[in-house]
Amino acid sequence: MTTTNEPIAPSDITATYFRSWVAHDWDALRAVLADDVTFEGPMATIHGGDQALEGLRGMSQILDHVEVQHVFIDGDDVLTWFDLHTKVADPVPTANWSHVEEGRITRIRVVFDARSLAPPD
């Protein structure tokens, strides 16, 4: 059996991120998050892999599925444009910009209109 030590492409890392999140595969999801990952989005700013995992677990409570529209790759940066399908709102167009270093996501920036996901007043 031949093995290679070629690095995993950043787009493969981010695909694992989304696949694991939707499947609730928390071990696989945590494995692609750097210990010092930062997450910034309209509903939270989080520092640290364990904290990011907990935030994603919380969001998964309303998550139905993710419909990826396009993936843009620029070196270690991957922007995933997708429709966020939830149990509480119509699909929400979303942009997720992930930066990957040494096979793990170190920075996540998410942009979407959170008004439809916010709890009612």
State the separation between the terminal residues, measured CA to CA: 60 Å
Instruction: Note the beta-strand portion.
Output: 35-45%
| Count of all domains | 1
The backbone outline, from C-alpha atoms, is globular
Number of strands: 6
Strand order of the largest sheet: 2-1-6-5-4-3
Major beta sheet summary: 6 strands, mixed
| Helical content (DSSP H or I, runs of 4+) | 25-40%
Taking all Cα atoms into account, the compactness measure Rg is 14 Å
Structural class estimated from helices and strands:
alpha+beta
Assembly state = single chain
What's a quick, concise take on this entry?
This protein is 26% helix and 43% strand. The protein contains 3 helices and 6 strands, in the order H-H-E-E-H-E-E-E-E.
Fold blueprint:
Layout: H1 10-23, H2 26-31, E1 33-40, E2 45-47, H3 49-60, E3 63-74, E4 77-86, E5 92-101, E6 104-112
What does this structure look like?
This protein is α+β, with helices and mostly antiparallel strands. It has a single domain (10-106), classed as Nuclear Transport Factor 2, Chain: A. It is built from 3 helices and 6 strands. Strands 2-1-6-5-4-3 form a 6-stranded mixed sheet. The radius of gyration is 14 Å and the shape is globular.
Keywords for this structure?
Nuclear Transport Factor 2, Chain: A, 121 residues, alpha+beta, 3 helices, 6 strands
